[in-house]
Structures are given as structure tokens and as C-alpha cells.
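This entry is passed on directly below:
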Amino acid sequence: MKTLLSPLNKGGILSRLESVQPTSSRLWGKMSAHQMICHVSDAFKLYMGLLAVAPPGFPYPSKMLKFGSLWVPMRWPKGFRTLREIDQHVQGAPAGEFAGDLDELKRLVERFISKPQDFTWPSHPYLGRMSEKEWMRLGYLHTDHHLRQFGA
């Protein structure tokens, strides 16, 4: 199972991020490539407790959803509604300059996996309390999902 704990998997994600351009076309969804970069950055901020979000309400957090989304070997469905605070069409961070936003995302990935950590894992709004292993799996899967959205 791929995870950001693996230097090979982390390197692959960072390399694929480099292939995304402002003009990259989406294969599904509504975000532009630049909005996707900002969305994934917002997600890493959420993962590290740097971005507060409102609870999504029932039925979350869910142990079944956590197990299914992290460990069942299938691709995530397209069109899953995200939290307002990281939705680029609602409250997500506005896009700035593409290269700067991409660099910020890469810095966030590095901080997310760094040892020792300079943050405390929060409770995920949908998945609840998670171990470092689960966070690293989520970080990989979410980023991979959006890179595939843009053919990267």
C-alpha cells in the first residue's frame, strides 16, 4: 500500500506535482489545475491542524469510511463532496501565483512527513482519530487522486 512514509512514493508524488501546469486540463470535476494545487495545500494544512474546519455532521467520523477509504484497494470515487473550508469554489484558499503555490504545496508535503513533527495530528472531520501511518496513507491517496484528475 502506497504511503508518504515511503521515500519512493513521496518522490513519485513530488515528481508528478512538477508535471502539473496552469494549463493542465482536468479529466473530471470543476477545479482548474491551479485550484487543485491550492485545494491539496489546504488539505495538508487541515491534516496538520493548521486549518480549522466545521464538523461535517452525521454520520462522521466513521470507522467504516476510514477503513474503506484508506485500505480497500480501489480508486476513490469522483465527485465526493469536500469540506467547505477546502473547497476552492466556496472557502478554499484563493489561488495566487502558480509557481509559488506549487512550491508551498511541496513545502507542506515535506513538513507533513518531517521528523520530528512540529505539529499535532488533529482528528480528521470524516475519519476521526488516525495514526501517523493512516495520515501518511491519506496524504498519499488524496494527492494521487487529484494528480490523476489532471492526468499526472
Notes: Helices lie at 7-19, 33-47, 63-71, 98-113, 132-149. The chain has a mean pLDDT of 94. Residues 58 and 126 are 9 Å apart (CA to CA).
